[in-house]
């Protein structure tokens, strides 16, 4: 979700993929809030969609985050790249963990979870809510930089090492943050390797869409329906399931990139917009989505799960974008300090 370095004019598919990913994140969190608020949401459909989203949407973001690692290393060097990630990952992690955590403490009596200030202040060793992604992504970046800074040609060997780490985590539950790093380093490095073959993949995007779509639907049916497994179950099938979901989104994004007019063009532009603002949406969507749910339920006494889902997702996307864009107006430049460290 961080800003992508060294993007070329032909790489708009990465923003489209991020747009798809961030919409899945928003829907997943809003739906969980609506379900936990006992608003009459169908449990079967909720669990099915929740599983399908969580099968691959966070591995997708680690994959996309790894795409430009080697080119960024070459341009900025190891030290410069890590310093930049302190600004773009750790800084907003600290700021928004404190902001959202403080609001959650204040609004605990109105929400579906109870939060204390002691919970919030554990952020240095126990990330809260959605912010675990920034915490873990920074560690993954550092590990990848240390592995590849002197020998980028060892990428495939490092990928095998990451695969072994994933297998270990899948068999034995490691302690945090080793569990998260072992779970997602593989996808990060796979994205780094994929960047070398993206042109070939783009040429066969139609075939890739068909194959990955069939693979994902078949594997998801086996994994959830036949084996009765949950998205966070430990099973080796979780890896091909996640990979097929990632490639499905990437191939669809590459095909959408070709359409800039008509109905598909409008869809492409909307996804590009969401992808471009994926970081502020990610940072603020919990506050926005939970806030509108509280207003609808406590103030207007509305109990429709469908209405809560629709307005929750809409506000969780639009409010962060509008708030972030306020920093461009006179007198609101301070808003930028909530997202990027001052120079």
What's this entry about, in short?
The chain has 14 helices and no strands. With about 350 residues, it is mainly α.
Tell me about this structure.
It is a single chain. With 343 residues, the protein is mostly helical. It has one domain. 71% of the residues lie in helices and 0% in strands. The protein has helices spanning 12-36, 43-54, 57-66, 69-106, 117-120, 132-148, 155-171, 178-194, 198-203, 205-226, 238-256, 262-276, 278-299, 305-325. The relative contact order is 0.16.
Question: How does the SSE layout of this entry go?
Answer:
Elements: H1 12-36, H2 43-54, H3 57-66, H4 69-106, H5 117-120, H6 132-148, H7 155-171, H8 178-194, H9 198-203, H10 205-226, H11 238-256, H12 262-276, H13 278-299, H14 305-325
Helix pairs in contact: 1-2, 1-3, 1-11, 1-12, 1-13, 1-14, 3-8, 3-11, 4-6, 4-13, 6-8, 7-8, 10-11, 13-14
């Amino acid at each position: 979700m961080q800003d992508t370095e060294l993007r070329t004019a032909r790489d708009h598919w990465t923003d489209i993929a991020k747009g798809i990913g961030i919409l899945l994140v928003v829907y997943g969190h809003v739906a969980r809030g609506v379900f936990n608020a006992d608003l009459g949401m169908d449990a079967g459909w909720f669990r099915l969609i929740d599983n399908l989203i969580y099968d691959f949407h966070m591995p997708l973001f680690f994959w996309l985050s790894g795409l430009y690692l080697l080119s960024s290393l070459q341009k900025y060097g190891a030290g410069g790249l890590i310093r930049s990630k302190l600004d773009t990952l750790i800084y907003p992690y600290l700021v928004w963990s404190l902001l959202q955590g403080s609001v959650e403490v204040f609004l605990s009596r109105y929400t579906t979870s109870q939060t204390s200030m002691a919970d919030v202040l554990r952020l240095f060793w126990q990330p809260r809510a959605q912010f675990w992604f920034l915490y873990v992504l920074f560690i993954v970046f550092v590990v990848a930089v240390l592995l590849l800074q002197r020998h980028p040609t060892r990428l495939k060997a490092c990928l095998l090492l990451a695969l072994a780490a994933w297998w270990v985590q899948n068999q034995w539950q490691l302690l945090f943050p080793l569990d998260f790093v072992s779970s997602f380093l593989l996808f990060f490095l796979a994205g780094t390797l994929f960047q070398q073959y993206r042109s070939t993949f783009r040429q066969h995007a139609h075939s890739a869409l068909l194959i990955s779509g069939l693979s994902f639907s078949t594997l998801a049916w086996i994994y959830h329906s036949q084996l009765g497994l949950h998205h966070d179950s430990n099973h080796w099938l979780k890896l091909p399931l996640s990979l097929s979901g990632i490639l499905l989104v990437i191939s669809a994004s590459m095909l959408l990139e070709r359409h800039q007019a008509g109905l598909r063009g409008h869809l492409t532009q909307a996804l590009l917009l969401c992808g471009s603002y994926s970081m502020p949406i990610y940072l603020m969507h919990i506050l926005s989505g939970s806030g509108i749910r509280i207003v609808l339920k406590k103030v207007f006494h509305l109990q429709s799960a469908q209405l809560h889902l629709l307005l929750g997702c809409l506000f969780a996307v639009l409010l962060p974008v509008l708030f972030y864009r306020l920093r461009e107006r006179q007198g609101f430049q301070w808003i930028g300090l909530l997202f990027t460290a001052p120079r």
